[in-house]
Structure prediction request, 462 residues.
Amino acid sequence: MKAQNGMYIDGAWRPAAGTGYIDVVNPVDEQVIGRVPAGTAEDVDAAVRAARAALPSWAATPPAERAARLAALRDALTARKDEIAGTVTAELGSPLPFSQAVHVSMPIAVAASYAELAATHLFEEQVGNSTVLQEPVGVVGAITPWNYPLHQIVAKVAPALAAGCTVVLKPAEDTPLTAQLFAEAVHEAGVPAGVFNLVTGLGPVAGQALAEHPGVDLVSFTGSTAVGRSIAATAGAAIKTVALELGGKSANVILPSADLARAVHVGVANVMSNSGQTCSAWTRMLVHRERYDEAVALAATAAAKYGERIGPVVNAKQRERVRGYIAQGVAEGARLVAGGPEAPRERGYYISPTVFADVTPEMTIAQEEIFGPVLSLLPYEDEEDALRIANGTVYGLAGAVWAGEVAEAVAFARRMDTGQVDINGGRFNPLAPFGGYKQSGVGRELGAHGLAEYLQTKSLQF
Ligand code: NAP
Ligand code: MG
Prediction:
């Protein structure tokens, strides 16, 4: 795989300050496919300085011109879509059709949406005798995970650039090659030097240096709750704005009037896609006691069909983590109806699509984010019970409700403590705000709400 031996800082690839590097591994066969430099605090400092220096001019660039650069970025990503899909497949392990359909298409749609929003957003409004200006927050430190490597980057960088902010990105150590391709696309799009900068490296080194850097005004982080908590504490002490997207344990609530077969089928697909490495996955399926056995049988059959199609998880550590959760589910008394903790192949970080029945709400597998292809089915007695179970975790990122009538599903969705709910299998909308209630995070990504995260207001009185 092609890899840049440097950091993208101030509009060019520059040698790293240190000599360390990160091996990039293909999760399908565990082979090293490339290496990138491991950035240090020195690289982060150089990148933040470049971003600070570029800020006044980018912030003063007319929104229409910023929109034109984002449209060019959308086109540059589109022109490289095969290369990006191949790279995501090589470093994340997701099957190529999924990389093409989701890992590449979704971020292109998001980049397109911000090209449009930058052109149409009203950065100024009249409120009585005041003019309220929406100005960029400043220099953004973006720290992203590996699960949707390009999407997580675009969901932060595109709105930041639309707002007039400048950015330093620290991508996940497991998927830095996709981040390098993104930097090349930014360069091709004619984004001025210093507006976007990339430092590859390890979380506790480069990531931490970025989160702590006094030249960063806003830290936008997506990843684990543990790291998010420490970033929020650091940012809080420095009175920096912080945006956190921390994962979830979302409920798929199938009401008695729903088309059960369809709801179960879509629910299983939702959990198994991307090998379960989706923060908004509906990993708890809630079914009325009377239809529970039928749902369990449908889910087991549906999961078995994914056996050959599913990709591996990202690395050995994640595989062990997920297998540990499966073993714990068995130990706590849940009933395996598909998959299990055994490795299905000799090579690669594979996990069998796994379904648990007889899961109770307080079990570990019903409370903690597993981040693998593992679905839990929980029975409920009535609607109040379903609501109590659905809302009974520390998370609140997403969810689904299925019912015979849309209005019935909507009435239930209104009572859920969560940031997004799909009604009867609703489609992905790149303009819909995405983000968490409770410990799933702070702030929203995508659409106009995502843009607002990167703006601060100033009011002029007349
Ligand atoms: P993570 O460590 O939180 O990684 C997210 C990002 O933060 C990566 O770029 C990571 O760098 C960086 N990072 C790590 N430690 C840091 C620190 N002390 N300061 C600043 N940045 C730091 O997540 P993970 O270890 O890859 O995955 C662990 C679990 O997190 C998963 O099993 C899953 O439950 C959850 N997760 C959630 C999401 C989501 O979308 N909400 C995404 C991924 C993971 P490195 O890549 O070098 O670690
Ligand atoms: Mg990590």
